[in-house]
Amino acid sequence: MTDAAVIDAPKKKRKPRDRWRATGWKFAAPGLSMIAIVMGFPLVYAVLLSLSSFTLLKPKLAPFVGLENFRTVMAGEYFWHSVWITIKYSAVTVTGEFVLGLLIALLLNRVVRLKAVYFAILTIPMAMSPVSVGLIWHMLLQPNLGIVNRLLELSGLGGVDWLGEPGPAFWTVVFVDIWQQVSFVILILAAGLAALPSDPYEAAEVDGAGSLQQFWYLTLPMLRPVAAIAIVIQLINETRTYDLVYVLTRGGPGIATDLMSYFAYRQAFLGLSINEGAAVSFVLLLMVLLLTIVFFRLVTRRG
Amino acid sequence: MTKHMLSALLSSASLAALLLAAPDAKADGLKLTALMEDVPETHIIEALLPEFTKETGITVEFQKLAYPDMHQKLVTQLISNQSAYNVLEVDFLWAGEFPEAGWLADLQPFVDKTNFDLKPFVPSMMDLVGKHKDTLYMIPMYNYSMGLIYRTDLLADVKLKDAWKQESGKDLAFPTTLADYVALSKFMKKNAGVEGAAMQSQRGDPNSMEFSNYLFANGGRYLDDSGKVALDSPEAVQALELYVDNLKNGAQKGALSATLDDTFRLMCDGKAFSMVTYWWMLPQIDNKDKCPNAAGKVALGVMPGGHGESGGWGWGIPKNQSAELQDAAWKFIAWVQGKEISIKRAMEGHAPTRSDVFEDPAVLAKYPYYKQALDVVASGMSFPIFTYSAQYEDVLGRQLSLAGSGEVKPDTAIKASASGLEELMKKAQ
């Protein structure tokens, strides 16, 4: 009897918690199953593809070849160049977007009138599809008939071969990407700035801190979590860039803009080797994960 | 009870009517979908589709896309259980890949069943986009062999004639060799106030197709007669040197990122002397409404050196669809490639694959340059057609682009292109 009471007592205590847990799982089940279907299944299938001998000519998973596809793509002459270009591209675009985004967000934070109008205008590029953005800029930057070179020539400067030379082509794609993506960073940072408490600033004013000091010692540290999220999201976006390269340069001139996503596409659909394309995609995924972890560690360590 | 019986009877009657109507010759209600490249040829056929529907009761819908997006979209349908596309437009670059993958139906039984006459088709077109390893997988749809479109007014200009004579010691005329053409292009850029050549040298399909003309014109080949890789030759290296020379000194700014659209706009605007391109671009440029600055001043010639790149599209039928849809697809192919409709298409600017259309008096009266077009088609040579042609185009395109941007030397690029071709051909075996 006593034993039973001892055993029963904790059971009685656990029951409501168990019920809560069960109810929680029930509520989460539809969402989790959707995630499993929409994300989990393709991810698992992609893993299987990358380890299989599946090609468009022989669309069967078996026989599995282990890491052979990874070895094949990594032994390719231009693979590592593609990895390097992707890292460089992501670093430059994310830095550009963050610096420019922060600057504009700070300016907008001071604006009192017509704030909604500014935000509406700023979100236009973000709402456009990258393919449309690429096509628009392709026409604007057309060296012979494009409006940008025409304006440069009218102002006495010579036209630039924006996409026809390796150096300028890389930076042109970077510029177009920043032009489109910066509005997302602005919106996130502006929201973060608006949510900052005013007390520390009032105290700093009383202590005689200047604007720069307030920005460096208050705004930046308090904005760090929001900024980290913006940077990580953009890092993930930029390492996956495909559309702009496809529309503007096709990876050229030479191999100047041969980013990994485009590399994977060519491997899969021109080379008909879906398995090797999946392997490249997984290397890309690992790269993104690694960069994200490193970045978060850096941010949290400082915090 | 009576109500139930009545509805059962009505349902049975409707079903019977449907079943009886199904094998009707007019095939009412059948709809065929085809993925088509968004080019003038597609629009010409599209305008005639109501005639086919009137004749057969079959509706045909064209989904139009830019060329680079087509391969991926087609392949994903062809490996599925049932293709959403019932009629296939197959580029010659895929004419090895699709049959090897087992995606196309053998068309010979359809030809036999309907007594479709294959004799009028130009033999080079049948080789390119008809038979693969002796099996008929495609019916040639239209050709896009390449030649040289050039400005006749500039060749006739007296001042330019004198200047050219002084510079080269030759009379200003249509060039006969590739070296002459590149020299003329550079001369025009320097002296005529126009670009010497509107070049489509973006990496991939554009520069691979363009360079193939330079290669064939200079006596180079991708494969020898026995099918072995023969690209690494002095002729090929010289062809690439001339290609790079023209890119740097004869072509427009931005040529390395230019596509067919860019070159067309430049030529159409009267701002270029020449372009190596598909012969059917001539009627587009020679059109007063579209291109007032160039119309009446352009002509077509076979690539200097005697050979250009041969190209074409064929019609195919996917294996992964029902017999009924395959029959309907064949009805459409036989109709659209029959003599009557081919002539109607030619009168609107179609690039024929049938010799009887090229030689038709009405067609020749409207388009006298179809005579030159036939020469271009007849003298054309082909890019290597095998399972990985599309990938090879990418491999070659990368090397050409590297050479064009000065990152590798022409001989290195040719060597890499030749070994890339060897590797892919080995992979295909």
Q: Class by helix and strand content of chain B?
A: alpha/beta
| Mean pLDDT, all residues of chain A | 89
Rg estimate of chain B, integer Å: 24 Å
Show unreliable segments of chain A: 1-7
CATH architecture verdict of the domain at 79-257 in chain A = Orthogonal Bundle
Total of helices of chain A: 12
CATH classification class of the domain at 79-257 in chain A: Mainly Alpha
Shape of chain A: flat
* Unreliable parts of chain B: 5-26
Termini of chain A, distance in Å? 55 Å
Largest sheet: number of strands, sense, barrel closure of chain A: none
Based on CA inertia axes, which overall geometry of chain B fits? Answer: globular
Helix content of chain A: over 70%
Instruction: Give the chain pair forming the largest contact, with residue counts.
Output: A-B, 32 and 37 residues
Structural class, from secondary structure content of chain A?
mainly alpha
- Could you say what the CATH architecture of the largest domain in chain B is? 3-Layer(aba) Sandwich
Q: How would a textbook summarize the main sheet of chain B?
A: 5 strands, mixed
Tell me the series of helices and strands of chain A, N- to C-terminal.
HHHHHHHHHHHH
Order the strands across the largest sheet of chain B as they lie in space: 2-1-3-11-6
Helix content class of chain B: 40-55%
Keywords:
heterodimer; A: 303 residues; mainly alpha; MetI-like fold; 12 helices; B: alpha/beta; D-Maltodextrin-Binding Protein, domain 2; 2 domains; five-stranded mixed sheet; three-stranded antiparallel sheet
